[in-house]
Amino acid sequence: GDSVTQMEGPVTLSEEAFLTINCTYTATGYPSLFWYVQYPGEGLQLLLKATKADDKGSNKGFEATYRKETTSFHLEKGSVQVSDSAVYFCALRVYGNNRLAFGKGNQVVVIP
Amino acid sequence: DTAVSQTPKYLVTQMGNDKSIKCEQNLGHDTMYWYKQDSKKFLKIMFSYNNKELIINETVPNRFSPKSPDKAHLNLHINSLELGDSAVYFCASSQDRVANNYGYTFGSGTRLTVV
């Protein structure tokens, strides 16, 4: 089936550090890929997306590139801020299927 | 204007009670969803409706019953609440059933605590 795998465990880093969160996927068809962010006490918000291979999604300094050859969609940010502390979810949706498959999420904590 | 709104935001109730959570979207989307998020932040889809038709019905106890009076509303009714039902429940909507370019728009969640 369609599934997303995110790296295990929370991520703790200092302000202005470089952030990478790994995401790999398995899809039965041609997927679109998404990153969602959940700030404390809030719902999920769409952070960025990419709908075809080699597309790069970007928003708020975050970037992710759709790599079909490695079935990956890793999230990166060059210099994180305390306000980036949140849970980040990778997700995919296959054409013809309205189900959005989520990864388990990664808690990111940015320390001043 | 809130795109996907859920009520109530917090719900504390005793075991055995029956409760409902309401969801409304003003985006004109034709598909709506209910997700359950556990204490480890894991998201599990429960139900999905497309234009009032049930299209996803995951393995969920039949104490949970969704109701969609129209495509802008999807309510969740829970009978005989149990301690394990404590979680955050999210409503979401999406624009199209087939096209996969669109993600979901989520509500802000309902934190259910069963005591």
Q: What's the count of strands of chain A?
A: 12
SSE arrangement of chain A, N to C: EEEEEEEEEEEE
* Unreliable residue runs of chain A: none
Strand content of chain A: over 45%
Count of DSSP-assigned helices of chain B: 0
| Helical amount of chain B | under 10%
Helical region count of chain A? 0
Shape of chain B: globular
Chain pair sharing the greatest interface: A-B, 28 and 28 residues
How many strands, what sense, and barrel or not for the largest sheet of chain B? 7 strands, mixed
Which blocks of ≥5 consecutive residues of chain B have pLDDT under 50? none
On the 0 to 100 scale, the average pLDDT of chain B is 91
**What is the structural class of chain B?**
mainly beta
Give a written overview of the molecule.
The complex is a heterodimer of chains A (about 110) and B (about 120). By secondary structure, chain A is mostly beta strands. Chain A has no helices and 12 strands. Chain A has strands at about 5, 10-15, 20, 25, 30-40, 45-50, 55-60, 60-65, 75, 85-95, 100, 105-110. In chain A, strands 2, 5, 6, 10, 11 and 12 form a 6-stranded mixed β-sheet that branches. In chain A, strands 3-9-8-7 form a 4-stranded antiparallel β-sheet, with no helix packed on it. In chain A, strands 1-4 form a two-stranded antiparallel ribbon. Chain A is globular, with a radius of gyration of 13 Å. The model of chain A has no long low-confidence stretch (mean pLDDT about 95). In chain B, the strands form 2 sheets. In chain B, strands 2, 4, 5, 6, 9, 10 and 11 form a 7-stranded mixed β-sheet that branches. The termini of chain B are far apart. Chain B is mostly beta strands and about 120 residues long. At the A-B interface, β5, β6 and β10 of A face β5, β9 and β10 of B.
